[in-house]
């Protein structure tokens, strides 16, 4: 068997000294180029990182607010602006730069003072509430949830003990009427056994008494004090049950009805413009009385300044140049009626869209008790009122040390820009 021939080997390549030197120089240049490239990349990244570090990282970690030793960073402040403005457009967030400051300070004072009273919320409770409501687990959301839980805890376990469970109470019936004459007329009808509920539903100008047919139900004095003027309240707790009050004037009450007196001064038919002078009055009775004074020659402008409840009457004496639709429909109907002669004063025009002050109450104590259990709704209102007063006192406490001087206008604008992504 013939032997295989050995494969011929290529001759080994030999480099001359000149070639070897040239090759080594190329390798050296490549290493230098590579090293320089790495250095350039590192420098660029460093520059970029340095810009982020100085423009974002450091500013966000600066102190924004200190409340009795507890510090809040600019990041926390920015996040609070984001949360409070989450349902607002960016352009509407400018008012939140101060609102966020107030919220942060209020919440921390609330937490600290609640803790002094022995009330706190655990981290587990906060996390559980965040999960139940599908909220982000951030410092700001944690604190907002903590305050919400603390509020409910204080209402149930602290302020509940401060609110009485029973008190002197009256079962009050009341209605608001526009004039003393109308009140006397309704009072006479009630004396003839007409229904208080029916008359209140038909004639009362106070929305609550109208909707409830005059029945204010059982309440202690402190509750009724929020909705009734002092003379009515005094009558309710001093009168005997079943006795109807005389008309009681309430000068501060606002009602949705008024009466216009309109005088047409001039017309421009081509431009569909009318020059009018108007007076807004509180009751039909007052409107007729005023019209009578005008008929005897009293000055329209002087009476407008004296009696009209229309804003701005002091400057323009009630004069307006109007086109259809600019004033109330009842005014338009008179002012643009071409059959109405110039200088004619209208009869009182009732307008249920006008807002006027003043009215007369009729009140009747249906029943009263010296020590009646307070209803749950009233007790909850009283607890909330006590909480509100406690909160209001927090910021007035001279022992508090609040420092928000770190937040100048420039930093607030910067924080708003971080929160919204909008340049202001």
Fold and architecture overview:
There is one protein chain. The protein is an alpha+beta fold. It folds into 4 domains: 28-60; 63-161 and 384-420, no CATH class; 166-255 and 357-373, Chitinase A, domain 3, CATH 3.10.50.40; 258-354, Chitinase A, domain 3 (Roll), CATH 3.10.50. Helices cover 49% and strands 19% of the residues. It has 16 helices and 11 strands. It has helices spanning 17-60, 74-84, 96-116, 123-132, 139-159, 180-191, 196-203, 207-211, 221-224, 230-238, 284-295, 300-307, 313-316, 329-335, 376-396, 409-420; strands at residues 63-67, 70-73, 166-177, 215-220, 248-255, 258-268, 273-281, 319-322, 349-351, 356-373, 402-403. Strands 4-3-10-5 form a 4-stranded antiparallel β-sheet. Strands 8-7-6-9 form a 4-stranded antiparallel β-sheet. A hairpin with a 2-residue loop joins strand 1 and strand 2 (70-73).
Task: Give the tally of structural domains.
Answer: 4
Form type: flat
Q: Could you tell me the mean pLDDT? A: 88
Q: If strands are numbered along the chain, what order do they take across the biggest sheet?
A: 4-3-10-5
Which secondary structure elements does this structure contain, and how are they paired or packed?
Elements: H1 17-60, E1 63-67, E2 70-73, H2 74-84, H3 96-116, H4 123-132, H5 139-159, E3 166-177, H6 180-191, H7 196-203, H8 207-211, E4 215-220, H9 221-224, H10 230-238, E5 248-255, E6 258-268, E7 273-281, H11 284-295, H12 300-307, H13 313-316, E8 319-322, H14 329-335, E9 349-351, E10 356-373, H15 376-396, E11 402-403, H16 409-420
Antiparallel strand pairs: 1-2, 1-11, 3-4, 3-10, 5-10, 6-7, 6-9, 7-8
Helix pairs in contact: 2-3, 2-16, 3-5, 4-5, 5-15
